């Protein structure tokens, strides 16, 4: 064992074998062999590991995955999909997270067991209550929050607790394929028709998940797809206005378009058509607010009769997709997913962040969402968005005051002997002003999705309010923006 004691005995030992004097001590020679063996093995190991890792990284970048669960058209539960795609599933679940400032504590009651809700918009702006007098929105209308909450917020809003609603409400608040498959015994079209006309309280008991993987993805290929009949019909009508006949969105849309279309299944203006309560999008003429109003005037649609003025008016809701479509980002091919589901790195993997939320949430999200295209700082991006919001708020306040004044004046006119034809004309202006105002305030980006377009629509609101007030006085200036004189009779 002394041989193994470095530097002490070796040379003595070698000196006894003259020929070997120039050689290294035996322990050193053996050590060298070992070093080669171990070193070689190490190098091989490191190279092999590197290779494996490179291959893995490449594979990860191509989004290959470990297939644990078999997915099919009846795999409704997102947690099963989550076994194959853990990071996307984690993101999806994270839509439960709320920013502290957005949370409002709620004391659970027998009727409404929620412990948190989002802020009440009606308290922030009482003009909304005036605008919606006579309609369910005047009793409860809150800020939106993450997708996790869509089912329960709909179940426990006073709009469904205290007013009858149709099953058609579920279209955009639940994972749909499960409900329509079960209701129609496998025939989704039949299931959809049945769901729409059921009472909401019955329909909601059939829902188990908020919008799930199966709503946006093909279970075999994971390709994006749309599953909502109203969108499939609506986008075909819109494409027809562009000269494209018989458009089949799931076959003809580009991947880029799909990154917005999956969202446009829900983030759009809609109404429930006829006794069947068929969810319908007013896109026959196009995607602008003018197109929507012209459509509703043509089909004679009215949501409610205004309690204070008797005007037959239309409630607009969340035209996020239509408004975005009028902006520079849509023109440049930027999609909803680019900003609200940006790519993020998980190790070497590039994945789509499934925590759908505001891109302005933090510097990290601004970086992920905006700085990929805009080569500037997070602070600058934030400043640009704040400026748009501030200008929007200012313009909105001006128009909303004008509309509120018109409503007050018509209300007074109905009890002060003003000639009926003048009131009818003023009511027509209210119908237009109210729909345009509602369209802007129920759009969720506070001006960002299409800043100039949004200000243009608000300008029309101010104008309609002014013309309505003049109509009450019997004055009719020449105008290029006159609405249909007689609002159509209510259809429901
Ligand atoms: C075309 C899709 C669609 C339909 C149909 C739909 N919603 Fe929604 N709903 C949305 C979207 C998108 C949001 C989130 C954006 C927002 O709040 O404006 C939302 C938000 C909500 C919210 C939370 C914010 C609020 O308004 O207080 C409630 C509650 C709600 N909807 C209830 C209903 C009820 C009741 C019905 C049926 C009368 C219905 N929804 C039908 C798409 C839809
Ligand atoms: C509202 C629609 C929507 C829902 C719901 C949804 N996804 Fe996605 N998903 C997307 C979009 C958009 C992309 C980006 C696809 C593209 O650009 O080709 C995507 C991409 C993916 C990808 C491709 C890899 C990646 O990260 O880019 C996987 C895997 C995936 N989603 C899994 C899931 C799983 C699992 C669920 C359910 C827990 C789910 N998705 C729910 C819209 C959705
Ligand atoms: C099945 C209908 C549906 C689809 C599809 C859908 N959403 Fe939503 N979205 C909703 C509803 C409903 C809410 C409001 C939920 C609530 O307040 O309880 C909402 C809320 C949001 C919010 C507000 C989140 C917050 O934290 O305040 C954003 C942002 C959003 N959606 C963007 C998107 C984007 C982008 C897509 C497409 C990738 C998409 N949504 C697809 C129905 C949908
Ligand atoms: C160029 C980026 C961009 C694109 C594209 C985009 N958005 Fe937005 N969106 C924003 C910004 C910025 C806001 C304002 C967020 C804020 O101030 O917190 C916003 C706000 C929203 C909100 C309200 C979020 C909240 O927290 O209340 C919803 C819902 C929404 N967008 C849906 C959509 C949908 C649906 C599409 C596609 C039709 C879309 N957005 C396209 C950037 C974008
Ligand atoms: C995929 C690329 C892309 C992404 C992502 C993107 N933008 Fe843009 N943005 C553009 C393009 C292109 C324009 C138009 C530039 C032009 O025409 O001069 C634009 C224009 C703008 C404008 C000027 C708007 C106007 O109406 O004139 C603002 C503000 C803006 N972007 C903010 C944002 C914010 C905030 C985000 C992130 C939430 C974002 N952008 C994400 C590409 C992008």
CATH third-tier fold name of the largest domain? Flavocytochrome C3, Chain A, domain 2
CATH architecture of the largest domain: Orthogonal Bundle
Question: Radius of gyration over alpha carbons?
Answer: 32 Å
**Largest sheet: number of strands, sense, barrel closure:** 2 strands, antiparallel
First-to-last CA distance: 102 Å
Count the helices. How many?
23
Proportion in helices: 40-55%
**Spatial strand arrangement across the major sheet:** 1-2
The 3D shape can be described as globular
List the uncertain runs. 1-27, 50-62
- The number of domains is 3
Class from secondary-structure proportions = mainly alpha
Question: In total, how many beta strands?
Answer: 8
Oligomer: single chain
How much is the average pLDDT? 89
In CATH, the homologous superfamily of the largest domain goes by the name Flavocytochrome C3, Chain A
Describe this structure in a few short sentences.
This protein is mainly alpha-helical and 492 residues long. Helix content is 49%, strand content 4%.
Task: Describe the model.
The structure is a single chain. With 492 residues, the chain is mainly alpha-helical. The protein has three domains: 60 residues, no CATH class; 297 residues, Orthogonal Bundle (Flavocytochrome C3, Chain A, domain 2), CATH 1.10.1130; 92 residues, Butyryl-CoA Dehydrogenase, subunit A, domain 3. It is built from 23 helices and eight strands. A two-stranded antiparallel sheet has the order 1-2. Strands 3-4 form a two-stranded antiparallel ribbon. A hairpin with a 6-residue loop joins strand 5 and strand 6. Helix 3 runs antiparallel to helix 4. The longest helix has 36 residues. It is globular, with a radius of gyration of 32 Å. The N terminus is likely disordered. One heme C binds next to helix 15, helix 17 and helix 19.
């Amino acid at each position: 064992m002394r041989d193994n004691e470095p530097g002490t005995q070796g040379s003595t030992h070698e000196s006894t074998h003259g020929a070997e004097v120039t050689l290294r001590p035996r322990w050193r020679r053996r050590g060298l062999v070992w070093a080669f063996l171990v070193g070689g093995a190490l190098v091989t190991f490191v190279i092999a590991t590197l290779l494996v890792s490179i291959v893995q990284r490449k594979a990860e970048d191509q989004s290959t995955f470990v297939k644990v669960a078999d997915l099919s058209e009846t795999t409704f539960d997102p947690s099963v999909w989550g076994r194959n795609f853990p990071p996307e599933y984690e993101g999806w679940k994270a839509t439960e997270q709320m920013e502290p400032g957005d949370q409002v504590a709620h004391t659970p009651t027998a009727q409404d067991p929620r412990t948190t809700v989002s802020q009440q918009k009606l308290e922030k702006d009482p003009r909304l209550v005036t605008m919606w007098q006579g309609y369910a929105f005047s009793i409860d209308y809150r800020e939106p929050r993450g997708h996790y909450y869509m089912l329960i917020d709909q179940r426990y809003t006073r709009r469904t607790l205290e007013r009858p609603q149709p099953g058609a409400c579920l279209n955009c608040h639940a994972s749909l394929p499960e409900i329509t498959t079960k209701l129609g015994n496998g025939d989704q079209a039949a299931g959809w028709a049945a769901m729409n006309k059921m009472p909401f309280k019955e329909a909601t008991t059939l829902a188990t998940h908020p919008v799930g993987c199966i709503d946006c993805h093909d279970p075999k290929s994971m390709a994006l797809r749309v599953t909502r009949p109203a969108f499939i019909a609506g986008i075909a009508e819109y494409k027809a206005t562009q000269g494209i006949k018989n458009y089949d969105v799931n076959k003809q849309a580009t991947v880029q378009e799909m990154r917005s279309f999956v969202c446009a299944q829900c983030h759009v203006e809609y109404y429930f058509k006829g006794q069947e309560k068929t969810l319908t999008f007013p896109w026959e003429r196009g995607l602008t607010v003018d197109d929507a109003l012209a459509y509703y005037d043509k089909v004679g649609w009215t949501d409610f009769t205004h309690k204070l003025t008797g005007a037959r008016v239309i409630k607009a809701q969340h035209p996020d997709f239509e408004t975005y479509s009028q902006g520079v980002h849509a023109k440049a091919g930027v999609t909803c997913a680019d900003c609200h589901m940006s790519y993020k790195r998980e190790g070497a993997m590039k994945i789509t962040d499934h925590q759908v939320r505001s891109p302005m949430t933090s510097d990290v999200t601004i970086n992920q969402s905006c700085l990929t295209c805009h080569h500037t700082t997070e602070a600058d991006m934030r400043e640009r968005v704040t400026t748009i919001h501030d200008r929007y708020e200012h313009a909105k306040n001006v128009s909303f005051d004008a509309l509120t004044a018109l409503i007050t004046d018509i209300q007074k006119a109905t009890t002060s002997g003003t000639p009926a034809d003048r009131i009818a004309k003023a009511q027509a202006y209210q119908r237009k002003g109210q729909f345009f105002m509602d369209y802007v305030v129920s759009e969720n980006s506070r001006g960002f999705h299409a800043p100039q377009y949004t200000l243009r629509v608000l300008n029309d609101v101010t104008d309609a309010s002014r013309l309505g007030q003049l109509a009450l006085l019997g004055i009719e200036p020449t105008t290029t923006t006159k609405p249909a004189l007689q609002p159509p009779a209510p259809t429901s």
